[in-house]
Amino acid sequence: MNNKLKVLRAMRDWSQAELAGHLDVSRQAVNAIETGKHDPSLPLAFRIARLFEMPIEEIFDDGL
């Protein structure tokens, strides 16, 4: 799944560790999501969307 997480994080000038702290996940989890190695769980996707004040669909793209 493609996502804009890295771009959104950079716009706020946050490191992966800082974003991980906001989301209560590990830095490795943030890296895995940003690089497309893992898709976030639905609850985590909702937390990400709320944090960036955007709909999930604007952050994550399933390619369809």
TrEMBL record:
HTH cro/C1-type domain ranges (all copies): 5-59
Entry keyword Transmembrane: no
Pfam families linked: HTH_3
Keyword annotations of the record: DNA-binding
InterPro entries xrefs: Cro/C1-type_HTH (IPR001387), Lambda_DNA-bd_dom_sf (IPR010982)
PROSITE patterns the record matches: HTH_CROC1 (PS50943)
SUPFAM superfamilies in UniProt: lambda repressor-like DNA-binding domains
MF GO annotations: DNA binding
Protein name stated in the entry: Cro/Cl family transcriptional regulator
